[in-house]
TrEMBL record:
Keywords, comma-separated and alphabetical: Hydrolase
Superkingdom of the source species: Bacteria
Keyword Hydrolase: yes
Organism: Paenibacillus aceris
EC number: 3.1.1.31
The UniProt record lists the keyword Ion transport: no
Record lineage: Bacteria, Bacillati, Bacillota, Bacilli, Bacillales
The name this protein goes by in its record: 6-phosphogluconolactonase
Amino acid sequence: MVHTDQKQDYYVFVGTYSLADTQGIHVLRFQGSEGKLSKVSGIAGVDNPSYLAVDAARNILYAVSENGSGEGAVVSYHFDPESGELTELNRQLTQGDYPCFISVNEAGDYLLTVNYMSGSVCVYPIQGQGMIGSMTGQIQHIGRSIHSERQEAPHPHAIVQIPGTNFWIVPDLGNDTLYVYKLDTHNGKLHLQTKVQSEPGSGPRHVTFHPTEALVYIINELSSAVSVYRYNTKDGALFHMQSISTLADDFKGVSTCADIHISACGRFLYGSNRGHDSITVFRILDDGQLVSLGYAPTMGKTPRNFSLVDESDFMLVANQDSDNISIFQLSETGIPVSTNQMLEVMKPVCLKVIPI
């Protein structure tokens, strides 16, 4: 996996929990040849810009404003690839509480988000130059599950497009359901295709796809497990294959999962454990199922989000409660090895990486 001649540099966009009067979104530079992070710019003006999406082809960055009392919002920015500066374009309310995830479709003409606390899924058209249009569709989830505090109501936690299709997966942590919607790009509406119940109390959270096979991997926040599904590209149907723990058998503490990513080669899968404060590593077998390879401490507390730096064999980990982003190099065995380098950032919770 190691490419010692790799000289590519990258921009790293960082979302945080912060107040509007502070720089909540940071732009960093990652030097692929040296494995170092440095600060480039930042922008204030938004409360809790926790999750981000990048349309690199159009130089547009999108962020949620994770607020309650119906004040959740989505915000668009123009990104100058030469200077690294961000300029706000516009924002729209999500008509719900605490939007926690945002995606732009492959065509770059629709933006989708989920309101975690109020349990809804939202669709917006993207207009000229990255401006977000008025909401065209909203779907309200219902139901609950067995965890009395975390699953008292629906809590959709992500919305991700199945590659090469117009289907979108929404894992709902609150009611233990995986929803598959089809996006009507003529009217800006989502239509339910199918839904699958996950194990009670599992709390499905984030999603990643195999680079070449019709396989999707779901990380379950509450049960600390990864579930493997095969999907049908024609109708979006999901077929469960395996669930496997992200924690060692002898771990006795409290831990919850957060983020999940797969290597570009399709050989390794990674997930973050908050509490155990580690990256769990799996080998992906030929049939798509997983075998645990071990764990790497994240050099910080509460690894909410992490990113694989494509083609440079580095991993960046956002440790929310120790206010740092730690840097790892990926070994030939797939295990992240700390470089003992990190950058201080207050409450980093999302990392998005694009080549410069």
